[in-house]
């Protein structure tokens, strides 16, 4: 399945969940329901996938987790906020970079129409970031 197909199916699933539940619930409720909807669509979905930080060749688990990973290729970050901020987009881009993923979707379910709460982002880095050597 192509990345665009995966993102299209994921967005459609999120819209169905939002249409059924509406805004105002906790992020965890949307995560459980979106996970179920994606499974019903026949997609492979991992939940709360750890993202390690690599520093000076060492890997550290510092608690970062991907909300959903669809087909092992599309990262999904969920929010239920009055308004997403640039820091939320930066978080998604950081997760994409740290995990080596190409495409991510940021869904904010706390909107009247979900189309107003969707942000698709692409990791433009085609290779691993250079190692940073400190003093």
Plain-language structure description:
- This protein has 135 residues and is an alpha+beta fold.
- It contains 3 helices and 7 strands; from the N terminus they run H-H-E-E-E-E-E-H-E-E.
- Strands 1-4-5-6-7 form a 5-stranded mixed sheet, with helices on both faces.
- The longest helix has 19 residues, at 3-21.
Label the structural class: alpha+beta
State the separation between the terminal residues, measured CA to CA: 45 Å
**Element-level helix/strand string:** HHEEEEEHEE
Beta strand count: 7
Low-confidence stretches: 126-135
- Please give the count of helices: 3
Task: Note the main sheet.
Answer: 5 strands, mixed
Percent of residues in helices:
25-40%
Our estimate of the beta-strand percent is: 25-35%
Lateral arrangement of strands in the main beta sheet: 1-4-5-6-7
Q: What is the C-level CATH assignment?
A: Alpha Beta
Number of domains: 1
- Tell me which CATH architecture applies here: 3-Layer(aba) Sandwich
What value does the average pLDDT take? 92
Radius of gyration: 15 Å
CATH fold topology: Trna Endonuclease, Chain: A, domain 1
Outline type: globular
What attributes does this structure have?
globular; 3 helices; two-stranded antiparallel ribbon; alpha+beta; 35% helix; Trna Endonuclease, Chain: A, domain 1; 135 residues
Compact description:
The protein is of the alpha+beta class and 135 residues long.
